[in-house]
Design a protein that fits this description.
Strand content: under 5%
Shape: flat
Structural class: mainly alpha
Number of strands: 3
Radius of gyration: 28 Å
Low-confidence stretches: 30-34
Number of helices: 6
């Protein structure tokens, strides 16, 4: 909004001259932007992440020093530091603007599995992380993908590539069984079958839409 200092009228449009006397108009107030300040929001997120990063580094260093001099017989500080790294990674993924639900779910589950395997290894490696947590994590991701496909029904076929990827991941427990690392071969086979069934179900029920997506992805 502008105002003519000669005529005293207020002009609502963006013209620079008064329609009566053709004098130069003066702004009567500040323009209020109707769009959010994306730069300010991004800077705020970056500052929050740097603050959390600094506090995590300080906490990790304190834990390492206490562990080194107070309880050198155990390595509990490594678990704490690994947990802080996982938490930082999740904060980064959450604050990242272009990270979708697929990236956040896969990153969260994969990071959690790695953290639990590390915890198992540092406590004597009882094998529970590989035998149970890893297979159930695969099923968790499969269920999450099905839920996302139901929610995003207009673009459900975009999740087929992730389902195919989970089939490859589902082969890992079977390979570990052959190597003698995983002892619960029944659970490993069940996980692979569930992953394969979900993918085949999506392809068969999806019909032409699923076929076109696979052709586009794999050029077959």
């Amino acid at each position: 909004m502008s105002k003519c200092r000669y005529c005293g009228i207020e002009v609502l449009d963006d013209t620079e001259h008064c329609p009566l006397c053709q004098g130069v108009l003066e702004q009567s107030g500040e323009r209020v932007s109707t769009y959010p300040n994306a730069v300010a929001e991004r800077k705020k997120k970056h500052f929050v992440f740097r603050l959390i990063l600094f506090l995590s580094v300080v906490a990790g260093m304190i834990c390492f020093v206490v562990n080194r001099y107070a309880t050198p017989q155990s390595n509990w500080s490594i678990i704490v530091i690994a947990s802080l790294v996982y938490a930082l990674w999740m904060v980064y993924i959450i604050l990242k603007d272009n990270a979708g639900y697929r990236v956040r779910i896969l990153s969260g589950v994969a990071g959690g599995v790695v953290l639990i395997i590390l915890l198992d290894a540092l406590t004597g490696f009882g094998g529970w992380s590989i035998n149970y947590v890893f297979p159930f994590a695969i099923i968790l991701v499969d269920v999450a993908l099905v839920i996302l496909m139901l929610i995003n029904r207009r673009n459900w076929q975009s999740y087929l590539i992730l389902q195919f990827f989970m089939i490859l991941v589902g082969v890992v427990p079977i390979i570990l069984c052959k190597k003698g690392i995983v002892t619960t071969d029944i659970l490993a086979n069940i996980v692979f079958l569930v992953t394969l069934i979900l993918f085949l179900g999506s392809v068969i029920l999806g019909g032409k839409t699923a076929k076109n997506e696979l052709v586009r992805r794999f050029h077959i």
